Amino acid sequence: EAGVAQSPRYKIIEKRQSVAFWCNPISGHATLYWYQQILGQGPKLLIQFQNNGVVDDSQLPKDRFSAERLKGVDSTLKIQPAKLEDSAVYLCASSPSGRGELFFGEGSRLTVL
Amino acid sequence: AQKITQTQPGMFVQEKEAVTLDCTYDTSDPSYGLFWYKQPSSGEMIFLIYQGSYDQQNATEGRYSLNFQKARKSANLVISASQLGDSAMYFCAMRERDSSYKLIFGSGTRLLVRP
């Protein structure tokens, strides 16, 4: 079974530029999550989708971050414009339902200069 | 208030010995799940073990066991017979039914296994 796929693995941009991350969850998984993990900290939930609807985006900085999950499968997380403090690893995870373990991708490491 | 608290930023253990990583949690939801994940330096999050709030017995998975003390709201991870490959960050996490089952993580404990 293929795991959660994320791209790109690494991205370096300058502040005020934009960036987009893509996630393809495990086939059949209804729930998809985006987490932000700043170096030395635990992952922080940015947004949670159930199929193509948003369940929780309370910690998503909506003035600069946006996310969508078209057709309830792939998802894209966008940052525009980026700030220095957005430097982090962006982890995508999926689960079959609202319960049970989450399966994580390898993450996308963003460096904002 | 912190939902998940891991008070040990770093731990050392001698190879082949056992080690306990602490985790306390805060919830008023009777239905919740507790998880431990391992994050090696390569960055991937690896699921280790799960404990449901209604589970009567402590969870075990190979060398990993979860010391679940519901009244104290603690869910400590015990790793037996430590191996060099166990050196990593370890995160405790919780999902609550009343919070749409979103997974909230603690700040992590860095474990270093000494040869």
Folded structure, characterized:
The complex is a heterodimer of chains A (113) and B (115). Chain A has 113 residues and is mainly beta. In chain A, 0% of the residues lie in helices and 49% in strands. Chain A contains no helices and eleven strands. In chain A, strands 2, 4, 5, 6, 9, 10 and 11 form a seven-stranded mixed β-sheet that branches. Chain A has a four-stranded antiparallel β-sheet with strand order 1-3-8-7, with no helix packed on it. In chain A, a hairpin with a 2-residue loop joins strand 5 (44-50) and strand 6 (53-56). The mean pLDDT of chain A is 93. Chain B has 115 residues and is an all-beta fold. Chain B has no helices and twelve strands. Chain B has strands at residues 4-5, 10-14, 19-21, 24-25, 32-39, 46-52, 60-61, 64-69, 74-79, 88-96, 103-105, 109-114. In chain B, strands 2, 5, 6, 10, 11 and 12 form a six-stranded mixed β-sheet that branches. A four-stranded antiparallel β-sheet of chain B has the order 3-9-8-7, with no helix packed on it. Chain B is globular. The model of chain B has no long low-confidence stretch (mean pLDDT 94). Chain A binds chain B through residues 31, 33, 35, 41-45, 48, 50, 55-56, 89, 91, 93, 98-107, 109, and chain B through 4, 33, 35, 37, 42-45, 47, 50, 91, 93, 95, 99-108.
